[in-house]
Specification:
The chain has 19 helices and 39 strands. With 781 residues, it is α+β, with helices and mostly antiparallel strands.
Length: 781
């Protein structure tokens, strides 16, 4: 009997182990990826990332704020936290990751021991307010969790999050009264009148609710919250510091004592919640947010965190991050693994969830809408993220996530008073920041890749409407003339070039859908870049209405009043990703174009020339890696037939513009675009023209990487002999066959398989060869 049982049991156990091994392997890869992330990367310098707690695409992004500046000084604190600071103002629940604009910072909490003060004070004068000193040695951060000791407050603070709830755990100093301060006056930056109206309400069951409406980058933004504590309140005080002098000890005439108020409204509200000096366990505070109403915030609180299991919420956040990061299994030296997985981590906070647990959300018309069958997202930094972030999400995120993003863009267009797709939107509100209509290539790239969980006809109509009728600078003249005239609109060269690329992506979708009339119209508009090209100087320039170029012309000039947006002629003249072959021909051939690219990288440039442009950073010659218009430029060498020169430039960029330290990003991460560039480049390929379904090959920076694709297949990149002495590509094999071209297609990637690079010490100038198939260009297709 024993032998028979063993004969049955062993095959069953082996079969079970075999069946579960992919899941076990994926879990192990996720745990390794999770452990490699350092959320402090990018929190120094101009990276503008934050180290706090969130889940992938979470609506709550809970993080410490180290200073709150006046608007004119707020650039360095766009994410709320700056690694060089030594004080913390408090912990707020909404943040941007890596932007060049500061806003959000909603619902700020600060734990206090002992006496209560309602003012922030001067961070450089300890004890002047509730701001507390801290030491980096006491900090800990990992995906979904942050902890720090507040030295002046005498509190150990821990943060974690679910999708809609931020959870705080505070261990107070023994023997001192414990308090939690709620400040609705603060944001990432302050200026008079930013808070239009706000409310704090203490309900009979101890739940604290409220809202505030702010004017700022997104005017009229409304945010509601609900908060509960794990211990009953021993007391509370609600203050309006604009009209109420009670916080100085004198209740205003005819009003109740702030310690007896159940509700207060106004523009400058702050509250203190008291728990006495007898706490025997850490206090937990949980805060949910909603764009809809207080009832929605309460429902989010009850849905996401019904109890008080802080460690359970932290474990769930860790599991979500391990799953999201575990799509890649990477073999590389530890510094590279840290940089890679932190970059992947930084690609996943946005576009963020913007919808209550019941599917309601507030749209750009400020009305409440209901999502049915899809999940609404907001925070679209599209001028940045259409280039690499959104193409990366089509590879590393489930198809449903990408469908939700498209659905969110289409819903925003339906609800927009202007009837167009978002430009730069957050919390459902449009900011009209930056140029172009770059929701269009995001939708086009998804459609061309077969992501179709939305009404394709509606999508094309939305793209066309946005290209024809949007309230963008110069769009009417662009349609009339084929370019934006500089004597009527500023930064006209940049606008002409970016509109032309977006138009090309409409051409691609219309062509694929059989809409020949639309395809013909936008195929013609895709060539409008030629109107900006000056063959005498070799630069893209702005024309006046009469067709002449504006003079005098200085290719070094950048900024407001010039021909260019956040750049100059040296940086913008290569922005024709849809027609690199046409760009080369305009220069007189590929060799001439490549010579001009060398001039960009090899120039001797005094960084002071960009002292007035805080966004132009990460200089290599004129190449500015800290800003998006340069991101495709190094790949143009390969596109134009000399991949070895791309390989050399990529090493130069990776060596100088990224490092796994707090100041390890050369410029704003811009909601993950800088990090997405790093992820793609580490893997050895990059989407120069989203919508083309092609990735230009560079060179890998990891020995091996395996991607678990959304369709269940696996794609592996291998770099044989990769080390510091072998940095050039000798040859490439795709699924065991020599690859005689410098690109792969999205279909090849999604089919799974193996892309193998053979690395060597010297460049192979003969690969892929003169007869190699060229990457996509509209002028030769």
């Amino acid at each position: 009997m024993r032998n028979s049982f063993q004969r049955i049991l062993v095959p069953v156990l082996l079969a079970s182990a075999w069946a579960s091994s992919p899941a076990i392997a994926a879990d192990a890869a996720g745990q390794r990826a999770f452990a490699a992330v350092d959320p402090f990367i990018g929190t120094g310098g101009e990276g503008h990332t934050f180290p706090g707690a969130t889940v992938p695409f979470g609506m709550v992004q809970l993080s410490p704020d180290t200073r709150i500046q006046l608007r004119k000084d707020a650039y360095g604190w766009a994410a709320g936290y700056r690694h060089s600071d030594t004080t913390i103002v408090g912990f707020s629940h909404t943040h941007f990751s890596g932007t060049g604009h500061s806003d959000l910072g909603d619902v700020l909490l600060m734990p206090l021991s002992g006496d209560v003060t309602l003012e922030r004070g001067d961070p450089d004068t300890p004890g002047s307010g509730y701001t507390s000193r801290f030491r980096h040695a006491s900090e800990r951060a990992e995906p979904g969790y942050y902890a720090v000791t507040l030295d002046d407050a005498g509190v150990r603070a821990e943060l974690t999050a679910s999708a809609r709830v931020g959870a705080h755990r505070y261990a107070f100093a023994q023997g001192k009264p414990a308090h939690v301060l709620l400040d609705l006056r603060t944001s990432m930056y302050d200026y008079p009148g930013k808070v239009l109206w706000s409310r704090i309400r203490v309900r009979p069951d101890g739940t604290v609710t409220g809202f505030r409406e702010t004017r700022g980058w997104a005017p009229g933004r409304q945010l509601y919250f609900a908060m509960r504590f794990s211990q009953p309140l021993a007391g509370h005080a609600l203050h309006n510091t604009e009209t109420d002098i009670a916080y100085k000890g004198f209740p205003p005439p005819g009003e109740k004592d702030p310690k007896r108020r159940a509700q207060v409204e106004g523009r400058q509200l702050v509250a203190s919640f008291d728990f006495g000096s007898g706490l025997t366990a850490p206090l937990i505070a949980k805060v949910a947010i909603s764009s809809v109403d207080e009832a929605g915030a309460i429902a989010n609180l009850d849905t996401d965190m019904p109890g008080w299991d802080f460690d359970g919420v932290r474990a769930a956040a860790k599991a979500q991050w391990a799953q999201a990061l575990g799509v890649a299994d990477v073999d590389a030296p530890e510094p590279m693994r840290k940089a890679f997985f932190t970059a992947l981590y930084h690609t996943l906070p946005a576009p963020s969830l913007f919808m209550d647990s019941d599917g309601r959300y507030r749209g750009p018309d400020s009305a409440v809408h209901q999502a049915k069958g899809w999940t609404n997202h907001s925070t679209f930094s599209l001028w940045d993220t259409y280039r690499a972030l959104h193409p990366l999400l089509t590879i590393v995120q489930p198809e449903q996530r990408n469908n939700d993003i498209v659905q969110s863009l289409l819903a925003a267009r339906r609800e927009s008073p202007y009837g167009v797709l978002p430009v730069w939107a957050f919390h459902g509100q449009e900011t009209w920041c930056m140029i172009g209509y770059h929701a269009v290539p995001v939708i086009a790239d998804a459609y061309m890749k077969g992501i179709r969980g939305y009404d394709a006809n509606e999508a094309l109509d939305a793209m066309v409407a946005s290209a024809n009728y949007g309230p963008y600078d110069g769009i009417a003249q662009y349609r009339e003339l084929g370019y934006v005239p500089i004597d009527e609109e500023g930064e006209a060269a940049s606008k002409t070039l970016e509109y032309a690329f977006d138009d090309w992506t409409i051409h691609r979708v219309a062509q694929a859908m059989g809409r020949k009339d639309v395809a013909a119209e936008f195929g013609k508009r895709a060539a409008n870049w030629t109107h900006a090209f000056d063959e005498d100087t070799g630069f893209m320039r702005a024309r006046k209405r009469d067709g002449s170029f504006r003079v005098p012309f200085d290719p070094d000039a950048s900024g407001y009043g010039t021909d260019y947006t956040e750049g100059n002629a040296w940086q913008y003249s290569w922005y024709v990703p849809q027609d690199v072959a046409g760009l080369a021909a305009a220069h007189g051939g590929s060799d001439a174009l490549l010579k001009r690219l060398d001039d960009v990288f090899d120039a001797k440039v005094d960084p002071k020339v960009f002292a007035h442009m805080e966004d132009i950073t990460g200089l290599i010659g004129w190449y500015a890696h800290g800003n998006e218009p340069s991101h495709h430029v190094a790949y143009l060498y390969a596109h134009a037939g000399q991949p070895w020169r791309t390989q050399a430039r990529l090493k130069q960029i990776m060596d100088t513009q990224y490092k796994p330290t707090p100041d390890g990003l050369a410029g704003n991460d811009d909601l993950g675009q800088m990090s997405a560039w790093f992820v793609f480049t580490s893997l050895g390929f990059y989407p120069v023209a989203p919508g083309s379904n092609e990735y230009i090959l560079g060179r890998p920076f990891v020995r091996k990487a395996t991607l678990d694709l959304p369709n269940g297949k696996r794609f592996t990149v291998i770099a044989d002999a990769l080390d510091d002495a072998h940095t050039f590509v000798g040859g490439v094999m795709l699924d065991g066959k020599p690859l005689d071209r410098a690109f792969i297609t999205h279909q090849e990637l999604m089919a799974g398989g193996e892309l193998r690079f053979t690395m060597q010490a010297m460049p192979n100038k003969d690969w892929p060869g003169a007869a190699a198939k060229a990457p996509y260009s509209i002028s030769v297709r």
